[in-house]
Specification:
Length: 332
């Protein structure tokens, strides 16, 4: 199969950055935007002023407001917020051709059903081969062509290899995996953990605490990935540990910046006010907490963040509770 025309569903910062990647890789790209202002901005100035200002888009990218305009694409990159993935794919179903791969590029766990995005895809577009793209990547850096490496997971190794070569572009290096569950779990849970790192930063707890959250958070992520059927090796790669380190290390991360604001004394409502881009950790935290209870997986940091976001505890109580937990062996 030859991929020559890519459709990107969702013109937020990450969707727009991936459209840039696909165009630089030599594909003709149709970028679908829900917002009329985004379509107008790109058509008039070749810039997505709302979500990725300052980046001039490649000439091979066209923009549309209609999902129907993606019907003749050879591969689809689905990049809506995770909590809108089901409704978006359902709306696209009438325009999807059987056998056209769907690459899931959003990170999260669906609230209510507690399902991963691959489960959502299987229920909405059962005739679509699935792939997952996840890894340490800030949209602005990727869009500008700065070096980045990501995991591309696909159960069909031959298809995955073809997709890997198709999306490989100057500065953008995909690494192939076959473990979709491990790739998804890492991307979803690291957003919740990034809020915890932001809290630590906002409270001025120091670099030692920051390192401890990343390390113990990685243990939580690995436990959940394995419990769901993923591989620890996948979670230890770019899509898990790599993404966790990046997201927990810079206020560029929407999730870390949310935690930073909360640690500095803002309420959840104040921290989220005026934000157009979605902090996926805020959306996924309740689902992560429910999933941990269902699977019997111990995830104290993630559960503490979920309780804080739900208004059930304070930052100070959260810190006290985590530090007063019983001592145990590190491997537990």
């Amino acid at each position: 199969m030859q991929f020559k025309r890519a459709g990107v569903i969702g013109a937020g910062a990450w969707g727009t950055a991936l459209a840039q990647v696909a165009a630089r890789a030599g594909l003709d790209v149709v970028l679908q935007a829900r917002e009329t202002e985004v379509v107008d901005s790109i058509n008039a100035r070749r810039v997505n002023e709302a979500f990725l200002p300052g980046v001039t888009l490649e000439d091979r990218i066209s923009v549309t407001g209609e999902l129907a305009d993606l019907a003749d694409c050879d591969v689809i990159l689905a990049v809506p917020p995770a909590q809108h993935m089901r409704s978006t794919l359902t709306a696209f179903a009438t325009h999807h051709r059987a056998g056209v791969p769907i690459m899931l590029c959003s990170k999260g766990i669906e609230r209510g059903t507690l399902k991963l995005m691959t489960d959502v895809l299987a229920e909405t577009l059962p005739d679509a081969p699935a792939a997952v793209l996840s890894g340490p990547s800030f949209a602005g850096e990727v869009a500008r062509g700065l070096p980045s490496a990501v995991t591309l997971a696909c159960a069909d190794e031959a298809l995955g290899e073809e997709l890997m070569w198709t999306l490989s572009a100057p500065g953008f290096r995909p690494y192939l995996a076959t473990d979709l569950i491990g790739a998804e779990v890492g991307g979803a849970i690291k957003n919740v953990l990034a809020i915890a790192c932001g809290l630590s930063e906002g409270k001025g707890l120091g670099r030692s605490a920051h390192a401890a959250i990343i390390t113990r958070g990685f243990a939580e992520m690995t436990r959940m990935g394995v419990a769901l059927g993923g591989q620890a090796e996948t979670v230890a790669g770019l899509c898990g540990l790599g993404d966790l380190v990046l997201t927990c290390s810079s206020p560029q991360s929407r999730n870390m910046s949310l935690g930073l604001a909360l640690g500095q004394g803002q309420t959840v409502e104040q921290a989220l006010a005026g934000k157009r881009s979605v902090a996926e950790g805020y959306e996924s935290a309740p689902a992560v907490r429910e999933l941990a209870a269902r699977m019997g997986v111990e995830m104290p940091i993630s559960l503490a963040v979920a309780a804080l976001l739900a208004g059930e505890t304070t930052v100070e109580a959260l810190i006290d509770n985590l530090l007063s937990r019983p001592l145990r062996a590190e491997r537990d």
